[in-house]
Design brief:
Elements: E1 4-8, H1 12-23, E2 27-31, E3 43-46, H2 48-57, H3 60-66, E4 68-69, E5 72-77, E6 82-87, H4 88-95, E7 101-104, H5 105-115, E8 121-122, E9 127-132, E10 137-141, E11 146-149, E12 151-154, H6 161-166, E13 172-185, E14 194-199, E15 203-211, E16 214-221, H7 232-242, H8 250-255, E17 263-270, E18 277-278, E19 281-283, H9 286-289, H10 298-313, H11 321-352, H12 358-369, H13 371-393
Parallel strand pairs: 1-2, 1-12, 2-8, 5-14, 12-19
Antiparallel strand pairs: 3-7, 4-7, 5-6, 9-10, 10-11, 13-16, 13-17, 14-15, 15-16, 18-19
The structure holds flavin-adenine dinucleotide.
């Protein structure tokens, strides 16, 4: 490989791209606007494909030991009636893959940051403009200084200024429900190493332990009564009211959470976009394919983007525009179908799990107990089977140490 790469954004995607490119022998520098890696956002589930990607990046053990394996998914209605459950530990054993991991975002980003070459990551460097010519791309920082490279990997998230510049017609879509999330020291209501979701009418809550006695919870709610910047105490009171009749232990999780740690926000995603780059700019992660978080798989997609792209760049001459065009085409062809499928599926799951009419919510529960639940479980098992195939292709199919 010859040529230089700039990675715009030191989030999950940008950090993974930095590690993957270093492994591929590609010279890359990361510019991140935050002054330090102090990622907020409570917890995150790194799905099985994400854990396999992290294994290839050499950081899976660090992530696993800083979080908690997710050995089962269990879904219930608001009365606590089981709808379906998936035995992830069984799938991992059967397919010889890693297990998903629930972890605090701070610990995940910390583990990734520990895996990058610190000299190549520049914090507190906000890029305010990107100019591309046929033979180079130039980024300018807010202090007026600039840097130049042969390729810009834009990992600048859903609000990506790079994507807005390349494709001004792409619109961010806002879902009809909001999320509130937090992390609290509290026992897991449905047991350790279980991700559980309780579906009500327009209100749902997911809980999963992140290890060290910390529990991540995430509420999806329709018809919010407290504004986004409203008083956190009022928001907490509203949540306690919404979840008062849910099974024992749920309201206590909310009650134990300090109001000032609640993160309250809209839920946004993108429609699939036609191209994931242009000329000397390639989009990665949420910048290319932000998805609603209903399946907890977005970060894994960014990790897979990073590995795929680094592999394609390993032998490319970045000074050659023709070669770069072929890299972009192959990267898009390999990565787009899965990322776009996730965008669509996650959006429809978000809609169905937010149904608030009693009749629709009741029919949803019946469907989830039967056909939809079985489909979900089969889809989850397919993810483990596909992960095993990715693992085999990566040239190492040995059984993971934790199995
Ligand atoms: C509520 C919620 C829950 C989620 N839960 C899960 C989950 O459980 N599992 C999962 O896999 N995924 C989950 N996701 C999705 C996941 O968070 C994203 O897919 C992932 O963070 C994408 O990483 P990224 O690096 O592409 O973007 P980001 O994480 O957004 O990172 C972009 C980075 O670019 C930097 N940046 C932006 N603009 C500039 C600029 N101009 N100059 C310099 N730096 C810049 C930002 O500061 C940021 O650090 C969730 C998302 C949300 C919103």
């Amino acid at each position: 490989m010859s040529g230089k790469v700039i990675i715009l954004g030191g989030g999950i995607g940008g950090l993974c791209a930095s590690i993957a490119l270093r492994q591929a022998g590609v010279d890359a520098v990361v510019y991140e606007q935050a002054k330090q890696f102090d990622e907020v956002g409570a917890g995150i589930q790194v799905w099985v494909k994400g854990m396999e990607a992290l294994r290839q990046l050499g950081v899976a053990d660090a992530v696993r030991s800083a979080g908690a394996e997710v050995r089962a998914h269990r879904f219930f209605n608001a009365a606590g009636t089981p709808l379906y459950s998936a035995d992830l530990a069984g799938f991992a054993r059967q397919h010889e893959t890693p297990m998903p991991v629930m972890i605090s975002r701070a610990a995940l980003v910390g583990s990734l940051a520990a895996g990058v070459d610190s000299e190549t990551v520049h914090l507190g460097r906000r890029i305010v403009s990107v100019e591309h010519a046929s033979d180079s791309v130039t980024v300018t920082f807010e202090d007026g200084t600039s840097d130049q490279a042969d390729l810009l990997i834009a990992a600048d998230g859903i609000n990506s200024m790079t994507r807005c510049q390349l494709f001004p017609d792409v619109r961010i879509r806002t879902a009809s429900y909001r999320y509130v999330r937090s992390l609290v020291a509290h026992p897991a209501p449905v047991g350790q190493n279980v991700f559980a979701m309780f579906l009500g009418r327009g209100n749902r809550i997911a809980v999963g332990d992140c290890g060290d006695g910390m529990l991540y919870w995430l509420v999806g709610m329709k018809n919010p009564t407290v504004p986004l910047d409203g008083d956190p105490g009022r928001l907490k009171a509203d949540l306690l009211r919404r979840f008062a009749s849910f099974p024992e232990g749920i309201a206590s999780v909310i009650d134990a959470t300090p109001a000032d740690t609640l993160i309250h926000h809209t839920v946004r995603d993108l429609d699939p976009i036609a191209r994931w780059g242009k000329g000397r700019v390639i989009l990665l992660g949420d910048a290319a394919h932000a998805t609603t978080p209903n399946l907890g798989r977005g970060s894994g997609q960014a990790m897979l983007d990073a590995i795929t792209l680094a592999d394609l760049l390993r032998t490319a001459d970045l000074t050659d525009a023709g070669q770069l065009g072929r890299v972009l085409d192959t990267y898009s062809r390999v990565r787009k179908p899965e990322a776009e499928q996730l965008q669509r599926t996650s959006r429809s799951i978000g809609n169905i799990t937010s149904w608030s009419s009693p009749v629709m919510a009741m029919s949803r529960d019946v469907i989830m107990k039967t056909i939809a639940g079985r489909r979900q479980i089969a889809g989850i098992e397919r993810q483990f089977a596909e992960t095993a195939a990715i693992r085999a292709l990566s040239g190492e199919s040995q059984r993971p140490a934790h199995n």
